[in-house]
């Protein structure tokens, strides 16, 4: 299913202004302009293959940029960063640091966000490489290595929800903050839940039913992942972090009084 074409047509119907760059990729400017520093963060991010990627109409990063820039504009968050390179998940030579879509401070807590827009509706959970199942690469206390190994192993059982990636990010966050037991950390997986308003743009009835079925599976797996990580955090006694699996649809209240909220809702069929 060509979600980009669907978005482009839906935006055209709604008179939302887009533009085609030279490669014919459809782009749309952020609702709130980024600071120079934030633009540089995006350009240097591992998840961005070109300077316009976060502007693409189907971009998960673009969705995160738009929501969290509005949240920043409300004055409720500070030190907002995009494409945050946290730390390498494993204690090995080479490799890249985990790249979180968003990081910010709020009420004294450090937030990390992994954002998903359309990926759960056309792709599935990825499998971690062999290195993640070698306990000698874990930079954790010896008595916690079995718990991490089992968590990573369990992650492979998920079909759509990208739990394997969540586990890698969790390990990177641990390595980044393992010496700071006082800092309160919130790690959120934030997904756009496909709405009926979006599905109505699809002509094929079979495709509609497939997507509605995926919505159910995604929700079931997201709740399962939340329970699994809660148990894991209790098992290793990691008390200063909270994991949350939420939908953009359900956190609109945080930006509801912003003058940009209606534009955000229109752009993302909310």
Polypeptide structure, described:
The protein has about 270 residues and is of the alpha/beta class. It contains eight helices and seven strands; from the N terminus they run αββααβββααβααβα. The chain has helices at about 5-15, 35-45, 60-75, 145-155, 165-175, 195-200, 205-235, 260-265, and strands spanning about 20, 25, 80-85, 100-105, 110-115, 185-190, 240-245. It has a five-stranded mixed sheet with strand order 3-4-5-6-7, sandwiched between helices. The two termini are about 20 Å apart.
Summarize the structure.
The chain is an alpha/beta fold and 270 residues long.
Strand % is 15-25%
Q: How many helical stretches? A: 8
Number of strands: 7
The Rg value, from CA coordinates, equals 19 Å
The first-to-last residue Cα distance is 21 Å
The structural class is: alpha/beta
Largest sheet: 5 strands, mixed
What is the element string, with H for helices and E for strands? HEEHHEEEHHEHHEH
Helix content bin? 25-40%
Query: Based on CA inertia axes, which overall geometry fits?
Result: globular
């Amino acid at each position: 299913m060509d979600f980009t074409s669907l978005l482009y047509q839906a935006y055209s119907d709604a008179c939302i202004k887009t533009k085609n760059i030279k490669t014919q990729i459809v782009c749309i400017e952020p609702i709130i302009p980024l600071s120079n520093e934030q633009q540089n963060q995006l350009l240097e991010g591992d998840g961005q293959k070109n300077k316009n990627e976060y502007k693409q109409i189907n971009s998960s990063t673009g969705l995160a940029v738009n929501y969290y820039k509005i949240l920043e504009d409300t004055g409720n968050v500070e030190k907002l960063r995009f494409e945050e390179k946290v730390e390498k998940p494993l204690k090995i030579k080479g490799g890249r640091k985990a790249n979180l879509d968003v990081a910010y401070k709020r009420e004294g807590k450090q937030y990390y966000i992994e954002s998903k827009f359309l990926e759960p509706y056309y792709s599935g959970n990825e499998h971690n490489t062999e290195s993640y199942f070698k306990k000698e690469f874990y930079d954790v206390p010896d008595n916690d290595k079995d718990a991490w190994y089992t968590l990573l192993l369990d992650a492979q059982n998920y079909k759509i929800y990208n739990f394997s990636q969540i586990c890698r990010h969790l390990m990177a966050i641990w390595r980044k903050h393992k010496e700071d037991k006082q800092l309160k950390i919130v790690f959120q997986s934030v997904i756009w839940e496909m709405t009926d308003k979006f599905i109505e743009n699809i002509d094929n009835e079979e495709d509609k039913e497939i997507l509605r079925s995926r919505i159910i599976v995604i929700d079931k797996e997201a709740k399962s992942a939340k329970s699994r990580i809660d148990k894991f955090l209790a098992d290793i006694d990691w008390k200063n972090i909270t994991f949350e699996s939420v939908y953009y649809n359900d956190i609109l209240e945080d930006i509801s009084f912003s003058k940009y909220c209606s534009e955000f809702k229109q752009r993302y069929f909310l």
